[in-house]
């Protein structure tokens, strides 16, 4: 993957990540207006129910794409990310939102980026240059500025709950990145369905309060965009950018949420909010400007993923020969996408790259 590619994966990844962040960012303030309409379990269940419906629709509309399906070895990671990202995260969020002003919670959700980054860099061997680390530092500073004034009484519990949600999603993001060469629609649909069905069932069995029909429909709609479509786009960004970069990009979500709270929900504007927003904005701009390019070696690697071939030459990472079975439904004279297991030969060259699945070299 890299500079030789006809469809620039970096541009595509940044776009997907940004749209995912905007959709998710607007969802938190909207949910905060209805946190008292039902129990945390029923609200989280409805949100992921909406996500499931949206992803099933995307699947219907787009038809199947040439992607590598989830395999048996992927199930443990998928189960853990579903539990943390689909159940623990949203339940802690809903309960935290009920205790804090929407703008404050939105900006505190920046901790998700911090946790994602720390895990990606410290445990996942992803690389972030000096600019990237500085960018992460600014984001953390913004979150600290925000929480300082609100660590008293019940808002302390609220902040802790938002931090817990952020940690759950930070682990979820890193596990999702590990699965990012698999079919993203399949992963997103599984996660949404496997999270919503048990939560809704449990809420009904335990006799939890459910929101009224109009509020339930609203939650389904918020979940469809803020969770369903957003999770899918986020998986595409994780594939193209790696978890560390996706995280800093995704930290645009809280700005969108805070602006949305000010503009639509007419929450009071504070100087703290402005300082925090400025720190975080500087962090995102810094990350987008970081370029990383150097001479490196791709080692022999055999795995399956969706990739691109151009008969006139093109991507040097995908010059492999094909078995007849891998060429069914592919044109002979035009470039095409397909997915199958293939060998990456050892290759040394220089090109711009990020810490995606093909670039886990040390620096
Ligand atoms: Zn590198
Ligand atoms: Zn590959
Ligand atoms: Zn490949
Ligand atoms: Zn191929
Ligand atoms: Zn390369
Ligand atoms: Zn490379």
Largest sheet, spatial ordering of strands: 1-4
Low-pLDDT ranges: none
Bound molecules: zinc ion
Q: How many structurally independent domains?
A: 2
Main sheet characteristics: 2 strands, antiparallel
Kindly provide the radius of gyration, computed on alpha-carbon positions and rounded to a whole number of angstroms. Answer: 21 Å
Q: N-to-C terminal Cα separation, in Å?
A: 18 Å
In percent terms, what proportion of residues is strand? 5-15%
Shape: globular
As a percent range, the share of helical residues equals 55-70%
Description:
With 363 residues, the chain is mainly alpha-helical. 61% of the residues lie in helices and 8% in strands. The protein contains twelve helices and four strands. The structure holds zinc ion (6 copies). Residues 303, 305, 344, 358 line the site of one zinc ion (ZN).
């Amino acid at each position: 993957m890299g500079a030789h590619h006809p469809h620039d994966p970096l541009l595509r990844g940044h776009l997907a990540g940004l749209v995912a962040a905007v959709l998710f960012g607007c969802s938190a303030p909207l949910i905060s207006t209805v946190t008292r309409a039902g129990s945390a379990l029923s609200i989280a269940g409805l949100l992921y129910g909406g996500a499931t419906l949206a992803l099933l629709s995307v699947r219907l509309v787009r038809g199947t794409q040439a992607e590598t399906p989830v395999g048996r070895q992927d199930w443990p990671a998928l189960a853990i990310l579903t539990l943390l990202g689909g159940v623990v995260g949203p339940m802690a969020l809903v309960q935290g939102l009920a205790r804090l002003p929407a703008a404050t919670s939105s900006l505190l959700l920046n901790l998700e980026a911090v946790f994602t980054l720390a895990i990606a860099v410290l445990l996942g061997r992803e690389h972030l240059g000096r600019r990237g680390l500085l960018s992460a530092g600014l984001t953390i500073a913004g979150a600290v500025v925000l929480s300082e004034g609100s660590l008293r009484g019940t808002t302390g519990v609220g902040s802790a709950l938002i931090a817990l949600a952020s940690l759950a999603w930070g682990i979820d993001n890193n596990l999702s990145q590990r699965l990012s060469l698999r079919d993203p629609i399949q992963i997103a649909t599984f996660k949404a369905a496997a999270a919503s069905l048990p939560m809704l069932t449990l809420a009904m069995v335990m006799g939890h309060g459910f929101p009224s029909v109009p509020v339930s429909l609203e939650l389904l709609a918020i979940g469809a965009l803020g969770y369903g479509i957003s999770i899918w786009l986020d998986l595409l960004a994780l594939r193209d950018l790696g978890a560390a970069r996706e995280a800093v990009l995704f930290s645009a979500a809280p700005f969108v949420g805070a602006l949305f709270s000010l503009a639509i929900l007419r929450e009071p504007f504070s100087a703290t909010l402005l300082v925090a927003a400025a720190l975080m904005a500087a962090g995102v701009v810094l990350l987008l400007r970081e370029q990383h390019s150097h001479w490196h070696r791709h080692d022999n690697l055999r795995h399956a993923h969706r990739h691109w071939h151009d008969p006139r030459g093109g991507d040097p990472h995908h010059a492999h020969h094909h078995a007849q079975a891998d060429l069914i439904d592919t044109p002979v004279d035009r470039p095409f996408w397909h997915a199958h297991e293939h060998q990456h030969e050892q290759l040394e060259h220089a090109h711009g790259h990020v810490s995606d699945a093909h670039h886990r070299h040390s620096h």
